[in-house]
Write a structure and sequence with these properties.
The chain is of the alpha/beta class. The chain has eleven helices and eight strands. The termini are far apart. It binds 3-methyl-2-oxobutanoic acid (KIV).
Length: about 280
């Protein structure tokens, strides 16, 4: 079913059932107004830990806290009625083991109303994914470039090229077998993304991967041209809102300095004119 025709949000099983069908549409969101804009168009919305970089000016996602994710999750949820919400588990909130992951994921689910959580990692996270799923927490996995591991990956480079492709395939199989209902593939070669998509039984959600994936996701501030610190090759700018916002602010500043704003239509008279009878 298309997102516009739907009356209520899909469940993780509905997303899983879209394997091989019409591509799943997804964007990140961090605020109520932006969630409202995308609600009718997206199958699911991700409250990504990219919030740290795009809204809070952090240099990476490592400084994002569970409290930040819960606060933004609550804001996004208020703007959604037709798209499912997935919330990222931030760095340090799940890697110690299944018990820590459950404790924090349960808070995210209970306090935000999310339909699922997302966490980064393949084979190494399979046990944790299985533990969460068995206890009622749907999990979206995220493999390939996993930004929370930037210090061990050594940079934001393409993952899975050459011999490393086998390890990425193993990651994809492991998270699918562990019970993840979908897997994000970030910044992997197109042919490898197509191979993973053909091999695993759950939907692949590409970001810098392949049009052959079962769905796509982008960071909303990237595709709207609001985040301009850098632009990854896989980002397509569908708008240039950052430049438009700057032009608007510059026009406002000029009018304030020239005393042409506020105009007559923006100010109030001493008395209210009598109502006509
Ligand atoms: O945090 C995020 O925005 C993400 C997407 C890039 C998939 O994880």
């Amino acid at each position: 079913m298309s997102a516009t025709a739907r009356k209520s949000a899909p469940m993780p099983d509905d997303i899983r059932a879209r394997k091989g069908g019409v591509p799943l549409v997804s964007l990140t969101a961090y605020t109520t107004p932006m969630a409202q804009v995308m609600d009718a168009h997206c199958d699911f919305v991700l409250v990504g830990d990219s919030v740290g970089m795009v809204l809070h000016g952090l240099p990476s996602t490592l400084g994002v806290t569970l409290e930040m994710m819960i606060l933004h999750g609550q804001a996004v949820k208020r703007g959604l009625s037709r798209a499912m919400m997935v919330v990222d588990m931030p760095f340090g909130s799940y890697e110690e083991g299944p018990a820590q992951a459950f404790r924090n994921a349960a808070r995210v689910m209970a306090e935000t109303g999310a339909g699922a959580v997302k966490l980064e990692g393949g084979v190494v996270m399979a046990e944790t994914i299985a533990f969460l799923v068995a206890r009622g927490i749907p999990v979206m996995a995220h493999i390939g470039l996993t930004p929370q591991s930037i210090n061990t990956l050594g940079g934001y480079r393409v993952q899975g090229r050459g011999a490393a492709g086998q390890a990425l395939l193993a990651d994809a199989r492991a998270v699918a077998e562990a019970g993840a209902f979908a897997v994000v593939l970030e910044k992997v070669p197109q042919t490898l993304a197509d191979q993973v998509t053909a091999e695993v039984a759950i939907p692949t959600i590409g970001i810098g991967a392949s049009a052959g994936c079962d769905g796509q996701i982008l960071v909303v501030d990237d595709m709207l041209g609001l985040f301009t610190a850098f632009k990854a090759k896989f980002v397509k700018r569908y708008a240039d809102l950052g430049a438009q916002a700057e032009a608007a602010v510059a026009a406002y500043a000029e009018e304030v300095r020239a005393r042409s704003f506020p105009g007559a239509e923006h100010v109030f008279a001493d008395s209210v004119p009598e109502a006509r009878t």
